[in-house]
Write a structure and sequence with these properties.
Mean pLDDT: 88
Distance between the termini: 43 Å
Helix content: 40-55%
Strand content: 5-15%
Low-confidence stretches: 262-266
Shape: globular
């Protein structure tokens, strides 16, 4: 239909279903259909003027069927997860704050893990120029130094939550101890996503993705389930400690850090510090040990107009 209506423009666009929505992760089910779930796709091009893209979007909204395979369209054309035409720069800028991957390591820390998941998920159906696919591949995964920096930050948080949980139990604060457990498991799931070199989705789908990862998740998952299900607070702590040990052992077994003994650490090592020792360049002496960059849970995905660079004042 597009090829007939826009014969000159058609060879210059990409067609894909990517970005916001559980369906782009493959995580949707019958329950997902209660909101923002409908047939739709996106058009992408940096070779066409904005007016041409908007004409294509309007044409699709008017001419696509209102029902497809038994599912109804809404009249929300132009939304981020319905029918929309984007300039490629606009899409990546809106989702990640950057039209192209930043060249400076510290600027990578201004991109949400969840945002990178959005721009690399889903499926590209048609891209004769390769422009959109090339851009997705450029954002494909963190550079090695950023990856190690984030691993170290998550590892530090995992270990801190163990310590905080232990302290809460000693004070008789079981509710707070449970909170530390949940916070710690969140960090573990993010850590395992990093181990598998997968961008983590936002919290709603974090455990869903974690369970499907090939590395480390299979060993961690039964311990995590046990820690959540048991009502024995001492057992929760014991299971979480086993998870911490599994994560640390994996790091050393796969050569991501050289084990250094530390008599002040309960486990005899500070594994997160050992990972951090491998970080190079401008992040090597980064002052905050547990900072891994901008986080979804502390701000809207589209905060500051979708441009987290404003946090740097430029």
């Amino acid at each position: 239909m597009l090829a007939k209506a826009f014969p000159d423009e058609f060879p210059l666009i990409a067609v894909a279903s990517v970005g916001v929505g559980s369906d782009r992760l493959g995580a949707d089910d019958d329950f997902s259909q209660d909101h923002c779930w409908e047939p739709g796709f996106q058009i992408f091009s940096d070779r066409l003027p904005r007016e041409a893209l908007k004409r294509i979007e309007a044409f699709l909204c008017e001419n696509l069927p209102w029902e497809f395979q038994g599912f109804q369209r809404s009249d929300c054309c132009g939304g981020v997860n319905t029918i929309r035409a984007w300039a490629i720069d606009e899409f990546f800028q809106t989702m990640t704050s950057f039209a192209w991957p930043p060249k400076q390591d510290r600027r990578w820390l201004l991109i949400l893990d969840e945002a990178l998941c959005l721009v690399t998920n889903g499926e590209v159906f048609y891209d004769p120029t390769g422009d959109f696919t090339q851009r997705r591949e450029a954002f494909g995964y963190y550079p090695e130094n950023i990856w190690r920096f984030k691993l170290a930050g998550r590892a530090h948080r995992i270990d801190v939550k163990r310590y905080q949980m232990e302290r809460c139990i000693a004070h008789g604060e079981e509710v707070a101890a449970n909170l530390m457990l949940c916070e710690g498991l969140r960090e573990v799931f993010h850590f395992v996503c990093l181990v598998n070199r997968r961008y983590a989705p936002y919290d709603r789908w974090l455990h869903w993705m974690f369970r499907r990862l090939p590395l480390l998740a299979g060993e961690v998952e039964p311990l995590a389930q046990g820690a959540v299900e048991t009502t024995d607070i001492a057992q929760k702590l014991s299971l979480y400690e086993q998870i911490v040990t599994l994560c640390a052992d994996w790091v050393y077994a796969h050569g991501l850090a050289a084990r250094a003994e530390c008599e002040h650490a309960p486990s005899g090592t500070l594994w997160w510090m050992d990972i951090r020792d491998a970080v190079q360049g401008e992040l090597k002496d980064f002052p905050e040990r547990d900072w891994i960059g901008v986080e979804y849970r502390y701000g809207s995905l589209f905060a500051l107009g979708g441009d987290f660079r404003k946090l740097l004042g430029d």
